[in-house]
Write a structure and sequence with these properties.
Elements lengths: L7 H36 L5 H5 L3 E4 L8 E6 L2 E7 L2 H8 L12 H4 L5 E5 L22 E5 L4 E4 L4 E3 L11 E3 L4 E4 L1
Antiparallel strand pairs: 1-9, 2-3, 3-4, 5-6, 6-7, 8-9
Length: 184
């Protein structure tokens, strides 16, 4: 009788299985080791804490009087916050939006009618328009005026005249309370 446990074909099958196991185990350790080695390099590409802190800005708007504007910085850009008067709100809503170069209703640009929050960068060439100070020229429509190339914005930050192709952008924002707004 022939003992198959010691036959060359039987032991070859067992060695093949053991060899496959060793290859898979060594490969798995290699992948885990490569991942552990690469993680610090990948992780260093995440934004730093100071950059993450700039991703949102909280502003206390309680001291802003009706008709007054303030400028805050968010992500390195000026953000205009204006507490509009009833006259400014009515002027912004009385416009036929189909006549605007970039049609957008005033109601779509604000969460509370008296508060207008805009990124204060002209959409033509990136200048900062005038209109935040009471002594600034506000253009023909009572909003903002970019003297560099003559873009006029209304009391809703919509382009009305000049070369700017779009309205002043509205950033993502939410009111945390009646007097605190978070931008970003």
């Amino acid at each position: 009788m022939v003992n198959t446990a010691h036959s060359p074909t039987a032991s070859h099958g067992a060695e093949g299985t053991r060899r496959d196991f060793l290859y898979l185990t060594a490969g798995a350790f290699g992948v885990v080791g490569a991942g552990a080695t690469m993680w610090p390099f990948i992780h260093q590409m995440n934004p730093s804490a100071d950059v993450l802190a700039l991703s949102t800005t909280e502003v206390d708007v309680a001291p802003v009087a009706e008709g007054q504007s303030i400028t805050v910085s968010w992500r390195g850009k000026p953000v205009f916050i204006r507490r509009r008067t009833q006259a400014e709100i009515q002027a912004a809503r009385a416009i036929n939006i189909n006549e605007l170069p970039d049609p957008q209703a005033d109601q779509a640009r604000v969460k509370k009618p008296e508060w207008l929050i805009l990124v204060g960068v002209c959409t033509h060439l990136g200048c900062v328009p005038l209109g935040q100070k009471t002594t600034d020229q506000r253009g023909e429509f009572g909003g903002w005026f970019c003297p560099c190339h003559g873009s006029h914005y209304d009391t809703s930050g919509r382009i009305r005249k000049g070369p700017a192709p779009a309205n002043l952008p509205v950033p993502a924002y939410e009111f945390l309370s009646d007097t605190t707004v978070r931008i970003g």
